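Researcher: Going back to the complex we discussed earlier. I've cleaned up the inputs and rechecked each line, so this should be the final set. Can you rerun the prediction on the complete assembly and write out the structure?
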Amino acid sequence: MKETIIIAGFGGQGVLSMGKILAYSGVMQDLEVTWMPSYGPEMRGGTANVTVIISDKRISSPVADSYDTAIILNQQSMDKFESKVKPGGILIYDTNGIITPPTRTDIEIYSIDAATECARLGQAKMFNTMILGGYLKIKPVVEMEYVMQGLKKSLPERAWKFLPQNEAAIQHGAEIIKKVR
Amino acid sequence: MAEKEVKLMKGNEVIAHAAVRCGCDGYFGYPITPQSEVMETLMELKPWESTGMVVLQAESEVSSINMVYGGAATGKKVMTSSSSPGVSLMSEGLSYLAACELPCLVVNCQRGGPGLGTIQPSQGDYFQACKGGGHGDFHLLVLAPASVQEMYDFVGLGFDLAFKYRIPALLLADGAIGQMMEKVVFSPQLPRRSDEQIAQECGSWAACGKGSRKERNVATSLFLQPDELEVLNDRLQAKYREIEANEVRYEEFMCDDAEYILVAFGSSARICSATVEMAREQGIKLGLLRPITLYPFPYEPLKQMAERGVKGFMSVELNAGQMVEDVRLAIEGKAPVTHYGRTGGVIFNPESVLEALKTNLLK
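Model: Rerun complete. Updated structure for the full complex:
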């Protein structure tokens, strides 16, 4: 098993921390992981992305040119990464702010209205864990037990009081993700 | 048995943890992307409250390397870290440290150059690290980590080798290894050495108090008499020959039956190991030799590969072709040697390395 994921969106959406929760979940399940962020000029221009690889074998390259799954959270990232999903791979996107929806027919496409749902619930900070929940519903690369452990490990102790809310958001994300085609 | 401490951390963060855990006495640095997390993590760890380690932000890289110079002269375990432009500023200090035969650890988390360049990863400082980086005939002992675990392990190893040979050790990483998170297993906390231990271990050379000795120890690189300076140079060169004989480290990946060999270090080696796997799936007998020490360089294993009939070598580097010169020296014209690289902070991927191999060597 080897899953190469790109998570891409705006800085502040929790892109890097979503990747960290996922990577830490893999560590908890005794899998190999790499987490490679964008930290360059694109970060300073407002967009952020991270490549996470989870594998049951030693991971050679932490750098990838194509992905099993792309989680896309803004239009710039859609323009950049839709073409980078492997044929037969998965693209998940939040519809909020997407002007040009994905057009590829050789991949599975899912949408999740997490931004709208978080706004409705008044829980903007649960956005990334809700998306993560949607992803794990489609691709359960890590068992939920370890995801909860990974979540706790990723958060500083002062934020542990938000763990139940995040767990609920993960479950809610799994409920609201929809297959587009 | 105690449970292993498995963490998920950035390469830069583990440098800080490793420094504290191996009993480092002092860190002196100045922030620069992409290595700023080293000092940030140290400031969070506050080791001055636990082990007594000093962490100090100097006013510049020139100051930090000279603080290292001072600390090292007293036999303390001291270090600094920076990224390419900052390491250039340290060049003079490194030459002085080498001349005075002082042990220390310097971390260079390389970024794209020349000049101020970019904050993205690069391996453009190979020449600076291995062929000088300061005036005069000297070497640094250069270690090239290719994983977050090696970033951790090589801090302790770097200090050990630095003290064993009384030579500045350089950990040559890059922005990719520094910023990437992977699993890392921590080693147990070692105590810092006491003043008595330092006097016992380093008393023959360190300025750690005259004690009952007749003469004071002096750390100096000024020898106005040519004969005297040549004595120092002869001693340094003898030490370098000893290091070249004893401390070459490298890793082979699928080299046993390989007809073609990639040579790559650090993050490039990680990418190339995926290239090797892809090539094998296509029936191409490709292997990877990863130098772990860049100085001393693994000339001998490469030479032996050429002698047993390897058909070609490609040095794969995030630069315009630097280590390839050492690969050529090793191969001595016995087989074609070529280079593939990207510059300016652009990272190649396993596919493009394979394409380059096909274009350059398999044509």
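Model: Worth noting: Residues 64 and 75 of chain A are 21 Å apart (CA to CA).
Researcher: Good, that matches what I expected from the previous run.
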